[in-house]
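Re: [help] complex structure
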Amino acid sequence: MARMSMIEALRSAMDVKLADDPAVIVFGEDVGYFGGVFRCTAGLQAKYGEERVFDTPINESAIVGIAIGMAAQGMRPCVEMQFADYVFPAYDQITQEAARLRHRSNEQFTCPMVVRMPTGGGIFGGQTHSQSPEALFTHVSGLKVVIPSTPYDAKGLLIAAIEDPDPVIFLEPKRIYNGPFYGDHSGKSVPWSQHAAGEVPEDHYVVPLGKADVRRAGSDLTILTYGTMVYVAEAAVKAAGVDAEIIDLRTLLPLDLETVRASVEKTGRCIVVHEATRTSGFGAELIAEVEEVCFWHLKAPILRVTGWDVPYPHAQEWDYFPGPERIERVIHKVMED
Amino acid sequence: MTGVKLSFPHPPARPDQVPDFSDIVIPAAGELPVPPLDLTAEQSRAMAVGLIRVLDDDGNAVGPWADYLGDLSADDLRRGLRDMLRMRAIDRRMMNAQRQGKTSFYLLCSGEEAIGCGFQRQLEKGDMNFPTYRQQTLLIGADYPLEMLIGQLYSNDLDPLKGRQLPIMHSARDYGYFSISGNLGTQYVQAVGWAMACALRGNGQIAAGWIGDGATASNDFHSALLSASTYQPPVVLNVVNNQWAISTYTGVARGKGETYAARALGYGVPALRVDGNDYLAVIAVSRWAIERARKGFGPALIEWFTYRVAAHSSSDDPSAYRAKDEGASWPLGDPVVRLKDHLVARGEWSEERHVQAEAEMLAEVTAVQKQVEAHGTFVDPQPISPAEIFRGVYAELPEHLRRQRQEMGH
Ligand SMILES: Cc1ncc(C[n+]2csc(CCOP(=O)(O)OP(=O)(O)O)c2C)c(N)n1
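Output below.
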């Protein structure tokens, strides 16, 4: 075991896979010599050479298109989008090519690849460095969509994603790259190295895709969330003084409906929290699923706390960001019924 | 295994090595001709692979492009020098401000001042630039009020964009500066669309697209060239080749292509490659391309050959990927020094006046900065109402946003 930040854990996952599988290839903008603008791939090119880890031109659709070509031959590309906001030029390649290759070729060709991308706000990145596009990918059949909230999960999930036979969208909440976040933007952040959840095994292990994690057991209500918002929800629960069960979904597609159902059947109340804008967000999907399987167990309507339906504002980031107070208010509302 | 190998382009020097620009061919100033305005792509080949220069190593303006500039007044040149000095003063003050936390982000254009400052002065009111984040110089050349420019960086109530945009992503319609997107390349093709509308509406205006060498790899660069070639709108397509795209060497975006300018030839768009650190070359070629567009001879591409002296942005540390002092070794010098030397050689400027002008600019910028800081900075914000974020998403506030604003408490 070692103490690692999420960045280091992700790097360690790529390191392990580059070492144990010659088919694994890592590339993207600035990821080679420099090791990426977040330094996630730092040192990997020096260790594995530039045929395994290299820089690409600034052309996201080419990065993904190349990855598809490689993956179709059985290689295992793990590529980086510099920010999730820049995945859109590659959206066509991901959604209409990678996601469908297996199905449309009746499994003659497959696409085992991972597209990593830093996602979400909380770093004053403005409109084009803060978006959370998960719902745009969970709407696409043929993809898997993963978002970790701890270094341990980040590494285990990334290894599982690289080993997965299908294309995986791997969203990395950049607000918690270096430590967890408790929702107060002026509060001190604790580095992962000083945090129990920063413990990560140095060698190979997997956290299976499609399995949620019960972060906190409780009986009053269930909070369904993922990524950075896991910590904000924890802070809200503490402040609200309720015995909430917090579920970190970890994989949005496929969704671990069993864990969700067991929890909501037990508590009878549910709220959904995400940072992405509300309308047609992943929260809507979650609420629909919970309502279908748990309707007769519900004591109150399912509510959601999300980012507002506006572009991510630079200076007013903390008005946009769903903080603990917003969650707390909704917790109280759900508990009243 | 076969002998088939992939190629991975490398810069000539890395941090532990001596800067090396020996690969760069720099022809003498004054060698290339001024082509006719109806130049074709084929005829422009020599200019697309060569380098148009006006100022020689001794600071004299030489050759056909110098003649083309004709009786360019010393006042105009002093104006250019002032623009560049003002930009440099802003870069210095704002980088400091970023380090003090007064703004969250800054991005310098040191070394590239001549390009935007020179180009903008050749445009007319109503023309529209589609800039990237490194063309603040276009605002300086347009005499954009410093209060608004710095207010945007501080996201305070002088910010015309109300804190919505990342610092340096200005938008100034009245000054010919289109709203900047952080997504590279997307606006190059929008410039073509704007220019097509100029032609359709017959308003006599033109558009200018701007892109970095790295972002020429984007799909939209190629879309723009193809669309410009197809419809022949009045657009000047600028490529600022400053050698680096964050840590990525320019050769990665260029591949085995000759020059970025030469890339346009395959699309049938004439192209010229220019010493971007030579203010006189900048204004000469800008004038030519702008006149060509305005007179209906269609698009042209200009590659401005320059060097990014500063870090990519306030979040970047170039010492991790490029040789120390690489900027100082750039063989085409510093645009400010080169224009200064030219004016001194002409007897129109002196070292003393230069030092004085530098101090004046710094004092002017510092004074405006103070005044703007009284309206709040990032560490010391004066609250913009949070309700502001709901404004301008649509022309009219829809019901669901009204409900969300209420939910927020406003
Ligand atoms: C579509 C897209 N992909 C990636 C980025 C991240 N990014 C921001 S600046 C930059 C480098 C741009 O280099 P270049 O075009 O040469 O312009 P320069 O910064 O040198 O002026 C990158 C990769 C982005 N902004 N947009």
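Chain A has a mean pLDDT of 97.
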